[in-house]
Amino acid sequence: MVYLVVRMKGTVNIPQWANLTLENLHLNKKFRATLIPENKETLGMLRKIKEIVSWTTVDESFMKEFIEKKGRISSSKLLRDQSQTTSNDNVTADTRKNESPKVSLDNIVSTLKSNQAYLSKISGIKPWFALDPPKGGFKKKSKHSATQDGILGENKELISLVKRMM
C-alpha cells in the first residue's frame, strides 16, 4: 500500500526538525502532496509531523487518477500534457530532443504499489503534486487532529478532500 500525504499548514512557525522532515518528503509548501511507501520508517516520519500534515492509504485506482491529473514532468509541464504534445505530428526533431523522457503512468503506479521506490527515485516525474485549496472549503476544523474532529494526522476522509482539491 501507499500513503497519500498532504501538507495542510503553511511555512510560518514550523520548527527546524519538522522542516527537515517535510523537506525529505518534498512537502515544502502548503497544499503540496506526495505518495510514499507504507512502512514503519515512513509512518514514524508522519507521526513526527502529524500537526502539519494529513495522510491516508490509497488504492491503485485513486493513485492512477491522481498522478494523471496532478503529476508533473517539470515545474510547468503536467504529465497529462505530455500525451497531448506527443500526438501532434508537427513537432520538429529539435523540440523532441529538448523534451524529457516519456513516462508511463502504469509503470509509475506499479512501481509505487509494490513499494519498490519513492517518487523521487523515479525519473521523469516530480516527487510532489501541487493542489488547490478545497472547493467548498474544509468541512472540519483545519487546526485539529482527525481524532478531534479535524483534518490533521491520519485521516480516513482525506481522499474525498483531495478530490475537491484536484
What does this protein structure show overall?
The protein has 166 residues and is α/β, with parallel strands linked by helices. The protein has a single domain, classed as 2-Layer Sandwich (Ribosomal Protein L30, Chain: A). It is built from seven helices and six strands, in the order E-H-E-H-E-H-H-H-H-E-E-E-H. The protein has helices at 16-24, 40-48, 60-70, 79-86, 93-98, 105-113, 158-165, and strands at residues 2-7, 32-37, 53-58, 129-130, 141-145, 150-154. It has a six-stranded mixed beta sheet with strand order 4-2-1-3-6-5, sandwiched between helices. Helix 3 (60-70) crosses helix 6. The longest helix has 11 residues, at 60-70. It is globular. The two termini are 21 Å apart. Mean pLDDT is 85; it is low at 91-97.
List its salient traits.
166 residues, Ribosomal Protein L30, Chain: A, alpha/beta, 6 strands, 36% helix, 6-stranded mixed beta sheet
Question: Which helices and strands appear, and what pairs or packs with what?
Answer:
Layout: E1 2-7, H1 16-24, E2 32-37, H2 40-48, E3 53-58, H3 60-70, H4 79-86, H5 93-98, H6 105-113, E4 129-130, E5 141-145, E6 150-154, H7 158-165
Parallel strand pairs: 3-6, 5-6
Antiparallel strand pairs: 1-2, 1-3, 2-4
For CATH, the homologous superfamily is named as: Ribosomal protein L30/L7
Mean pLDDT, to the nearest integer, reads 85
**Based on the structure given, which CATH architecture is correct?**
2-Layer Sandwich
**Overall domain count:** 1
Query: If helices are DSSP runs of H or I spanning 4 or more residues, what is the number of helices?
Result: 7
Specify the biggest β-sheet: 6 strands, mixed
